[in-house]
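### Sample
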Amino acid sequence: MTTATQQLSGGASGTSNATRWIQLVVGVICMIATANIQYAWTLFVPEIQGTFGWARAEIQIAFTIFVLVQTWLAPIEGYFIDKLGPRLMVAFGAVFIGFAWYINSQATTLMGFYVGAALGGVGVGSIYATCINNALKWFPDRRGLAVGLTAGGYGAGSAATILPIAAMIESSGFQETFLFFGILQGSLAFIAAWFLRSPAKGEVKASAKLVQATRDYTLKEALNTKLFWLMFFMFICVVTGGMMAVAQLGVIAQDLGVKEFEVDLHFFVMAALPLALMLDRIMNGISRPLFGWISDNIGREKTMVIAFTLEGFGIIALGYFGHNPWAFLILSGVVFLAWGEVYSLFSALAGDAFGTKHIGKIYGVLYTAKGIGALFVPVGNLMMEATGTWSTVLYTVACMDLTAAILAIVALRPLLKKHVEFSADLLKKENAASGGATAHA
């Protein structure tokens, strides 16, 4: 098999190997500090609705705005990552996430929450794109694992704070909770930012296991490939179901009648929804490095088939058995386990296919698929109200997951192989042309 750009394959020293793991840990810390803006939002929605009396769909527009801004600005953020480096970008994002939650703590109108969501999207997008970009550059030989651990920090980062946030909302109200955790999380990310840096040339080595392109593509070149747009479509298909679950799990639990069910495990008792949220965040965090590591060893396409199929059938089962509290807990965990890996698999695959020199811009555009998936969050509410059941919504997104699983094996695999072969031939021609021009001069 061909490997990624060989200029990177100079053996990493013990010092640089330790350095890249330190960089990975710092990136994970930054991701943990940003996670609650997305993953704890579902706890705030019922409280906002109860306080102001707005329709649920109107409140959830804030979530959609957040995701749209976070994702659709990613190409611009990718440009500034390459230009300014990781430190300034993460510090910039930290200021924005703190300010976003401060605005939420003071908001008394829907527009106030919409503004807070937009600023939060800028902050989280800056940090998320930077840390993923940095992981891809430091670990060309273990991209799946590295971006999985980094994205896992975002997916599982809220697990430790779900219960404190829920408790503080109960005791002090959602406004005070927004303020306290905004200051805490923004400060943590700001401090961590100053420990980040990009790798110097020759500090990292390439993979010898995976099919990877031998050439660095520009954004324009990547956008001109069929492979990019196939990845983009598959990303949309898979991310939609997970986005729906993230934003609506609390609402779904309430409508299914399991929200207040007391789970008694003898050594502790907890309501079904907070327990489900905590478990789901853990499963979501485990998913990203787990499937990333698997993909480093068996390939991205095969891993996608396994994960996407599992998510599709998990969502179908949730729609069918979700009225049972225990089934709700287990199946929501399965859905999050199978969904979280999209953020490690697609970013690693982008690095494999297009190189890392311009990966900030390329993955930035690919990541906008998440924004398109977010558009379906309020649509899910409308579908539920029109049909009277969440099953219609869940079965729809399950079909999208299974479609992506089929495409991974019947379309993505052969297209990636052809793309890598073409990249190798193109690089040879470019090197020959460059060598000929030098000799002539």
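The longest strand covers residues 262-264. This sample (Oxalate/formate MFS antiporter) is used throughout the tutorial notebook.
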